[in-house]
Automatic annotation (TrEMBL):
Leading EC class: hydrolase
EC number: 3.5.4.9
Gene Ontology biological-process annotations: tetrahydrofolate interconversion
Residue ranges occupied by any Tetrahydrofolate dehydrogenase/cyclohydrolase NAD(P)-binding domain in the UniProt entry: 167-272
CDD domains registered for this protein in UniProt: NAD_bind_m-THF_DH_Cyclohyd
Domain Tetrahydrofolate dehydrogenase/cyclohydrolase catalytic: 33-148
Subunit (UniProt): Homodimer.
Protein name: methenyltetrahydrofolate cyclohydrolase
GO cellular component terms attached to this protein's record: mitochondrion
Annotated organism of origin: Scophthalmus maximus
PROSITE patterns: THF_DHG_CYH_1
Length: 275
């Protein structure tokens, strides 16, 4: 499990570099804290954890990544993950499969990796081709090797405030909040976006009980989505102490929607026109 924790910490670091804007009493004095600095701190901690694990006589942790198809973004993500793994002393492999692989063939491969004692962590890079059921694939990965935290068992444990594999981006947001000292207890939070891999887990982590096995943020959380009217969203963000933008919509949250002293965490990645 220690090896798996190191893998999870690494995946949390490599998935996204979120950016946090924390405004002080005067908007001109706003402080921007890049997630990159915190990510490097986490990488250093992961490197130390791995070294300690290996020195104690355990085998070096190993991550297997299954990459299906030719999606350029997916290839870039996977390359970043395996490079980060190597940097902290975790061995890894990327298993490339053509986009026409059948769901049955992919499930067979996952089963083999689940039962391979050399594999400590396993992830199947999303998205997958349309003819493959992503939920079936995520649920086929062993919950004990599920570094993405997408298996229904890990999602359920997260929702029940139990220790579990957490999705990388939501965990990264929580680390930014904790490591920069942003208070959450009793605070108003708006999460813009309700995706099952980002928005929903972020809201779950922020609103749940801080006294439980997997401590939550004890915040009052409002979730907005594509059918939330802009004026209603503005009403909620104007009273929010923390705003997390995870909707994948450029310029959804603008400066006039944020109150003085609020923290804004942007985890969106968007392609925009730049003349």
């Amino acid at each position: 499990m220690a090896a798996l924790r190191s893998l999870r910490k690494l995946c949390q670091h490599s998935q996204h570099h979120a950016c946090k804007l924390h405004t002080s009493a005067a908007r001109q004095a706003a402080v921007v804290i890049s997630g990159k600095k915190l990510a490097w701190q986490i990488r250093e901690e992961a490197r130390a954890d791995v070294e300690k694990w290996v020195i104690a006589g355990h085998k070096r942790p190993h991550l297997s990544v299954v990459l299906v198809g030719d999606n350029p973004a997916s290839h870039s993500y996977v390359l970043n993950k395996t490079r980060a793994a190597a940097d902290v002393g975790i061995s890894s492999e990327t298993i490339l499969k053509h986009s026409d692989i059948s769901e049955e063939e992919l499930l067979d491969l996952i089963y083999k990796l689940n039962t391979d004692h050399r594999v400590d962590g396993l992830l199947v890079q999303l998205p997958l081709p349309d003819h493959i059921d992503e939920r079936a694939i995520c649920n086929a990965v062993s919950p004990t090797k599920d570094v993405d935290g997408f298996h229904v068992v890990n999602v359920g444990r997260m929702c029940l405030d139990q220790s579990a594999m957490l999705p990388a981006t939501p965990w990264g947001v929580m680390e930014i909040i904790k490591r920069t000292g942003i208070p959450t207890l009793g605070k108003n939070v708006v999460v813009a976006g309700r995706s099952k891999n980002v928005g929903m887990p972020i809201a779950m982590l922020l609103h749940t009980d801080g006294r439980h096995e997997r401590p939550g943020g004890d915040a009052t959380v409002t979730i907005s989505h594509r059918y939330t009217p802009k004026e209603q969203l503005r009403h909620h963000t104007k009273i929010a102490d923390i705003v997390v933008a995870a909707a994948g919509i450029p310029n959804l949250i603008t400066a006039d929607m944020i109150k003085e002293g609020a923290a804004v965490i942007d985890v969106g990645i968007n392609r925009v026109w730049d003349p």
